[in-house]
TrEMBL record:
Protein name: Gnt-I system high-affinity gluconate transporter
Transmembrane regions listed in the UniProt entry: 5-22, 28-47, 54-76, 96-122, 134-154, 174-197, 218-243, 263-282, 294-316, 336-365, 377-400, 412-433
Subcellular localization(s) per the UniProt record: Cell membrane
Family: Belongs to the GntP permease family.
Organism: Cecembia calidifontis
Record keywords: Cell membrane, Membrane, Transmembrane, Transmembrane helix, Transport
Pfam family, one: GntP_permease
GO cellular component: plasma membrane
Length: 437
């Protein structure tokens, strides 16, 4: 009955949002309560579970999203996004815009957490879309496919890095294998799939759409790229330093603090406030007003993500992920396919790629010690499964939907299907590598 109750809870969530037109945050709260009751979470613990889910997810994301929205607004308003798009278009050409976005997402996505990369680069997508009169989804999907793949497949992202440690895999070899699989996966789920999305009507949030400026008003090329991508440089630098410096060294805590994604975004915003703001003749009061507008526009996004966190926590506390894993453990199938299947089903059930990956790791770990599967490929198989069919219980689903201002139907047709393609093609890549090596 666990699976039936899970389906009922998700069906209620979908009906509340699509049929009754409920605010998604309220719908999430109602569905979370229903799921908790049906799945046997004690009533005295249910409210606490919901609050924990909201707090834990927002605790990780609120600084990143708010600072990223402010930085994105400034990058757009200052003309930096316009300058960056002009340079990229000059290199790739308008006809190859999807390839330009894909390369940008891959390069930036390797060191950058998904949510940071999303809020940092989506304004660039909207600027290119507006300036060249191209559909926003068509331009954006290749970039988001790249960010998603790097998040699920490649260390040093949280889930693959944790799996490497748990399975005793080789971090460098996993990264090499991951890149071999990631590149064709991104090409298929990005530029190729985007060709079928040109008719989706997206109306992105106005806060990230700046009217084209005259050439004389634009910041320089170096200033634009440096200010917009400073979070990438800072994360790469602190990551390299963290590997070079002994954990007991006096500067190690400072490196860890500065390298925290939230701190990276704050430092980057302060830098850009000067390089793209004060330096470009913005008044401080004008800058602060720009940031207020950016924050207002993402308030509902934060609440929707919080609602997704509440439902995810209730499902975790109810033991749904363990039930799914236990029911599949006895399957007589290839271990890489088994690991992918368990991860994919947990991902669809609870919405979190990281939770799905780490839950599966505990079930599959004996296969590694038994020497019956390559641990590096097992990390990638689980990583691919953890990206399967993002939908209503995933904060990333709502982040994409609200930023691009899409209907639920079009979000599923573009975002959810893209994530499914990534998961399936990723598994095929893992199996192909397994046959070769």
């Amino acid at each position: 009955m666990t699976f039936v109750f899970l389906l009922i809870s998700i069906a209620v969530l979908i009906l509340l949002i699509t049929w009754l037109k409920f605010n998604p945050f309220i719908a999430f709260l109602i569905s979370s309560i229903l799921a908790g009751i049906l799945l046997g979470v004690p009533l005295e613990l249910l409210a606490g579970s919901i609050q924990k889910g909201i707090g834990s997810l927002l605790g990780d994301l609120v600084i990143i999203i708010v600072m990223g929205a402010m930085l994105g607004k400034l990058v757009a308003e200052s003309g930096a996004a316009q300058r960056i798009s002009e340079v990229l278009m000059g290199i790739f050409g308008v006809k190859n815009v999807t390839w330009a976005m894909m390369v940008t997402g891959l390069v930036v996505g390797i060191p950058l957490f998904y949510n940071v990369g999303f809020v940092l680069l989506v304004p660039l997508v909207f600027t290119v879309s507006y300036q060249y009169k191209l559909p926003a989804v068509y331009v954006g999907i290749p970039l988001l496919a790249a960010l998603s793949v790097t998040h699920g497949f490649l260390p040093p992202h949280p889930s693959p890095a944790a799996l490497v440690a748990q399975f005793g895999a080789n971090m460098g070899l996993t990264l090499v294998y991951g890149l071999l699989i990631a590149i064709p996966t991104i090409i298929i789920a990005g530029p190729f799939f985007a060709k079928f999305l040109k008719k989706i009507d997206a109306r992105p949030l106005e806060t990230f759409q700046a009217k084209p400026k005259e050439e004389s008003e634009l910041p320089g090329t170096f200033n634009s790229f440096f200010s917009a991508l400073f979070p990438v440089f800072l994360l790469i630098g602190t990551t390299i330093l963290s590997f070079q410096v002994d954990p007991g060294h006096v500067i190690a805590p400072y490196i860890k603090f500065i390298g925290d994604p939230g701190m990276v975004m704050l430092i980057s915003l302060l830098l850009a406030s000067y390089t793209l703001g004060i330096h470009m003749n913005f008044k401080t009061a004008q800058l602060m007003e720009t940031y207020v507008v950016a924050t207002k526009d993402i308030a509902m996004i934060l609440l929707i993500i919080a609602g997704a966190g509440a439902l995810k926590q209730v499902l975790m506390d109810s033991g749904v992920s363990k039930s799914i894993a236990d029911s599949l453990q006895g399957w007589d199938v290839h271990p890489l396919i088994l690991a992918w299947t368990i991860t994919a089903l947990i991902r669809v059930a609870v919405g979190s790629a990281t939770v799905a990956g780490l839950t599966t790791a505990g079930i599959i770990a004996p296969m590694v010690s038994g020497g019956i599967v390559n641990p590096n490929l097992l990390v990638l198989s689980i990583g691919a499964g953890s990206l399967m069919f993002s939908h209503f219980n995933d904060g990333g689903f709502w982040l994409y939907k609200e930023y691009f201002n899409l209907s639920v139907k079009d979000t599923i047709k573009s975002w959810s299907l893209m994530e499914t393609i990534v998961a399936v093609v990723g598994l095929l890549g893992v199996l192909a590598l397994d046959a070769i090596i």
